[in-house]
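ugh ok fine here u go
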Amino acid sequence: MTKHIIDDAGWLESVEVIESPNCDARPENTSIKLIVVHGISLPPGEYGGGNIQKLFCNKLDPASHDYFAGICDLRVSAHCLIERNGNIIQFVSFLRRAWHAGVSCWQEEQACNDFSIGIELEGVDDQAYENAQYRSLSGLIDSLRSTYTDIQPDSICAHSEIAPGRKTDPGDAFDWDKLNRLIGA
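structure:
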């Protein structure tokens, strides 16, 4: 597990940064207190190719795949993406609101984007995630919890938990027990 340094501007040191325009300021006096784990692949079930990065930067070519025509106009992002090999790419400063959760509710509090950090794992609901992804995710969570101390051990959830019926990721194939062992929860 690699622990990362987060600078005062909310950026991880020593990871690739591709800034997404799909973010804005968090509401004043909002505490970062939740980590939301997502799963994504573009096109669905295919890995690599940079299409997630293109989606988060509004550069997805609708002509490059039939699936993309229906999503190319979405304005979404996450704070970080963890690729299949464990590589982390950061798109939005942790101090800003990334547009990852959509309509959502956690512990009776609406609008989870306001107070959460969104981490996308490259994957699909029904296929095992890679050990390298769990290692990177656990190191990232450790770093986030050290920096943003309002994130409690039970403040890590699936996208499906905050948007039930609307979202299913990261899916049944995500091994929460493995993650919990790695982060000591």
